[in-house]
């Protein structure tokens, strides 16, 4: 399909707690004109929504990846999911961030917050891992504004050591009985001088977790399982992004596997699920390391557009399970819920201009029988 050139700027100025972005129509139009002259669009729009014409564009063109409708829940199961919600920042300035990491202009637009919330409602996960959260405060504000009817009484969101401030978090209907982080844990070696042909900002520094994995242990009570309480250990990851960061991702995987080995030494019967944004596909070495360590991919050999999890056309958001948990996973229940994406021929980094845009990632979902 031919590239859609945006023509109309829609500005909404409705203020919603924690998720707000507005500017005058004149300011937005000036910025849009400049972007068009430059042949590019700002990475982060300053308006509530920038929508595009022409009028005869089929809205279905905005849906390219994943499935249009969630799969029905499997009877007798709980539903787990992972969703990178893309920069869930609030409008409160973090004084610890400045320069290239300044967060004051990163507030997630209300239209995107609403679209994320709609996706979360549709998948209806009992336990939801989310990535790119600014803080627990930002997540609580989002939950209270948009997800107050979802039953997410249990929330963990911890500083992961990321210099931009983003964290992994878990929203759960069931009690969270343990959680841990390994901020800046040494992973062995030092950073090389270059990223490909570019200078490496971290050259010579010790390699550590860019964002610590988040361990959360959830307990599903007996009145849900129909028997004994069931415990599930989640390892929520957001591995280092970047084409030239494969060495760093691989170091993070080695470190994460070491952490899991320590947890398994405490309790060899743990049901362990690793989920989140891996910033790598199953053909990449970093993911192969998990598979070689005995973790199973819930998607298996399935492929095609319905399994794409990122606007770039890749499957980089995954749910992996150890042998114990894999016995309880229902692979046939798995799905990726598609949300607004740029049509073919449109730069995926411009998709945030389209109506209904939520995130550049899509939720990955699977059902699990909570019985050992």
Q: Give the number of domains.
A: 1
N-to-C SSE series?
EHEEHEHEEEEEEEEHEHEHEEHEE
The CATH topology corresponds to Deoxyribonuclease I, Chain A
Number of strands: 18
- Classification by helices and strands: alpha+beta
Please give the order of strands in the largest beta sheet.
5-6-4-3-18-17
- CATH class equals Alpha Beta
Radius of gyration: 21 Å
Distance between the termini: 49 Å
Low-confidence stretches: 1-17, 21-56
Q: Could you estimate the helical fraction of the residues in percent?
A: 10-25%
Number of helices: 7
Strand content: 25-35%
Condensed summary:
By secondary structure, the protein is an alpha+beta fold.
What does this structure look like?
- With 372 residues, the protein is an alpha+beta fold.
- It has one domain (68-339, 362-368): Deoxyribonuclease I, Chain A (4-Layer Sandwich).
- The chain contains seven helices and 18 strands.
- It has helices at residues 25-38, 110-123, 136-146, 222-225, 246-266, 285-292, 323-326; strands at 8-10, 49-51, 78-88, 127-133, 154-157, 167-172, 176-181, 186-190, 194-195, 198-199, 206-208, 214-220, 230-238, 272-277, 296-297, 317-321, 329-336, 364-368.
- The strands form five sheets. Strands 5-6-4-3-18-17 form a six-stranded mixed β-sheet, with helices on one face. It has a six-stranded mixed β-sheet with strand order 7-12-13-14-16-15.
- Strand 9 and strand 10 (198-199) form a beta hairpin.
- Helix 5 (246-266) runs parallel beside helix 6.
- The longest helix is centred in the C-terminal third of the chain and has 21 residues, at 246-266.
- It starts with 7 loop residues before the first strand and ends with a strand.
- The model is unreliable at 1-17 and 21-56 (pLDDT under 50).
């Amino acid at each position: 399909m031919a590239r859609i050139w945006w023509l109309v700027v829609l500005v909404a100025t409705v203020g919603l707690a924690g998720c707000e972005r507005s500017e005058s129509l004149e300011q937005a139009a000036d910025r849009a004109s400049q972007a068009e002259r430059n042949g590019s669009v700002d990475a982060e729009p300053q308006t509530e929504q920038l929508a595009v014409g022409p009028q005869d564009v089929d809205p279905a063109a905005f849906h390219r990846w994943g499935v249009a409708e969630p799969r029905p829940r499997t009877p007798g199961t709980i539903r787990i999911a992972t969703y990178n919600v893309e920069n869930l920042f609030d409008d409160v300035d973090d004084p610890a961030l400045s320069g290239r990491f300044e967060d004051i202009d990163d507030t997630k637009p209300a239209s995107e917050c609403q679209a994320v919330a709609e996706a979360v409602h549709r998948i209806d996960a009992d336990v939801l891992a989310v990535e790119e959260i600014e803080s627990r405060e930002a997540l609580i504000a989002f939950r209270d504004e948009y997800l107050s009817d979802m039953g997410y009484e249990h929330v963990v969101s911890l500083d992961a050591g990321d210099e931009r401030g983003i964290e992994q978090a878990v929203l759960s209907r069931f009690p969270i009985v343990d959680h841990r982080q390994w901020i800046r844990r040494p992973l062995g070696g030092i950073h090389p001088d270059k990223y490909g042909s570019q200078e490496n900002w971290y050259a010579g520094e010790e390699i550590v977790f860019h964002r610590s994995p988040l361990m959360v242990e959830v307990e599903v009570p007996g009145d849900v399982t129909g028997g004994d309480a069931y415990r599930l250990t989640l390892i929520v990851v957001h591995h280092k992004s970047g084409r030239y960061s494969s060495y760093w991702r691989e170091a993070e995987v080695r470190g994460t596997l070491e952490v899991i080995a320590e947890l398994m030494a405490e309790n060899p019967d743990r049901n362990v699920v690793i989920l989140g944004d891996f910033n790598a596909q199953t053909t990449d070495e970093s993911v192969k390391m998990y598979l070689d360590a005995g973790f199973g991919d819930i998607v298996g050999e399935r492929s095609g557009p319905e399994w794409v999890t990122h606007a770039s056309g890749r499957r980089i958001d995954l749910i992996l399970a150890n042998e114990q948990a894999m016995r309880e996973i229902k692979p046939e229940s798995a799905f990726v819920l598609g949300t607004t994406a740029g049509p073919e021929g449109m730069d995926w980094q411009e998709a945030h201009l389209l109506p209904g845009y939520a995130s550049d990632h899509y939720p990955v979902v699977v059902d699990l029988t909570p019985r050992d």
